[in-house]
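Design request, tokens follow.
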């Protein structure tokens, strides 16, 4: 895995990526997107970067799997603090010029950049995770029914709470994170209307610190714990790390997000209190897009992952969770009802 940690200037980026392209056997920028057995694949991370134990790490897993299974070269690039759309345009442009195909933006924040760059490189497939607003013949929109997985998390939370109070911590108040909130709250209320849900966001756009600063998540979770919450679900990227830490140290249940956070090495100290995680199969989505390009049949348009395709779900890695047979049964029933259309999950609170 070749990793470009910071693209600070055009010169540095160009040099680094030119070397990568040479090592991979990719073609020059004028031939970007042409068929090549040694073509690389690239992902550009969202706020928080790799190591968030959640969303970005799930994307990395897909790239790493492609390197191993498809025998390709992979490149991943980090966001810079407080970067602009112009910075994202530069990053994606350099990745495409280096011959990487596909180039995947991890997160809806890449939408404006992909809209501009995809038009300039029609032979390169661009993927964007969590956004369907940008369209094009060479754009693949990898989107998920986060509200459905979050509904299952709400069912589990309502079943295990003893204080009849649970919490939701959202990183940044965006339409995407509101889907997590809406599903969770509905799952709780449909299971036990007497359970109170405390919901809070860490920051408001254009401030995206709520996805990157664990101390914010920790403080928010502690505030909810102080109000008697004994289950806290955080959809906050790296900031969710702080929420899990606070909840675990209080001896209460945490519900993870995006990745199976019980299995994340960086959260090993807290895993016993991570009851379950609302997962979205970003890893498979990234791998499938890369494979489609390698197979010569690149995915384009909206590719949606829901409960029916196991694109979202609820992790059962924690033995403590699997021993709660009544909780598991309730979650399984809810999953079936959603797939069968008996339960319609809201996408807004």
């Amino acid at each position: 895995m070749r990793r470009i940690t910071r693209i600070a200037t055009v010169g540095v980026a160009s040099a680094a990526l030119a070397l990568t392209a040479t090592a991979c056997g990719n073609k020059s920028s004028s031939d970007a997107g042409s068929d090549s057995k040694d073509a690389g694949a690239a992902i550009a991370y969202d706020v928080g970067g790799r190591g968030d134990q959640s969303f970005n790490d799930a994307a990395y897993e897909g790239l790493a799997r492609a390197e191993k299974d498809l025998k390709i070269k992979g490149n991943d690039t980090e966001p810079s603090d407080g970067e602009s759309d112009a910075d994202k345009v530069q990053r994606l442009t350099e990745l495409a010029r280096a011959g990487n195909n596909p180039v995947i933006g991890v997160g809806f924040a890449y939408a404006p950049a992909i809209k501009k760059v995809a038009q300039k490189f029609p032979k390169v497939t661009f993927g964007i995770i969590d956004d369907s607003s940008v369209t094009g013949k060479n754009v693949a929109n990898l989107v998920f029914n986060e509200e459905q997985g979050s509904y299952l998390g709400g069912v589990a939370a309502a079943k295990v709470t003893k204080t009849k109070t649970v919490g939701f911590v959202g990183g940044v108040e965006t339409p995407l994170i509101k889907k997590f909130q809406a599903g969770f709250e509905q799952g709780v209320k449909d299971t036990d209307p007497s359970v109170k849900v405390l919901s809070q966001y860490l920051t408001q756009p254009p401030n995206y610190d709520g996805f990157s600063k664990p101390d914010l998540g920790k403080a928010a979770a502690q505030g909810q714990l102080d109000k008697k919450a004994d289950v806290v679900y955080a959809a906050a990227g790296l900031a969710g790390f702080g929420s899990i830490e606070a909840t675990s140290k209080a001896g209460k249940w945490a519900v993870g997000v995006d990745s199976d956070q019980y299995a994340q090495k960086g959260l090993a100290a807290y895993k016993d209190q991570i009851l379950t995680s609302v997962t979205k199969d970003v890893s498979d989505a990234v791998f499938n897009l890369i494979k489609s390009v390698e197979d010569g049949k690149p995915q384009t348009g909206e590719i949606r992952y829901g409960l029916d395709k196991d694109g979202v779900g609820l992790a059962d890695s924690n033995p403590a969770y699997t021993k709660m047979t009544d909780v598991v049964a309730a979650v399984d029933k809810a999953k079936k009802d959603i797939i069968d259309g008996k339960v319609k999950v809201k996408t807004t609170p």
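Comment from the thread starter after seeing the answer: thanks! The radius of gyration is 20 Å.
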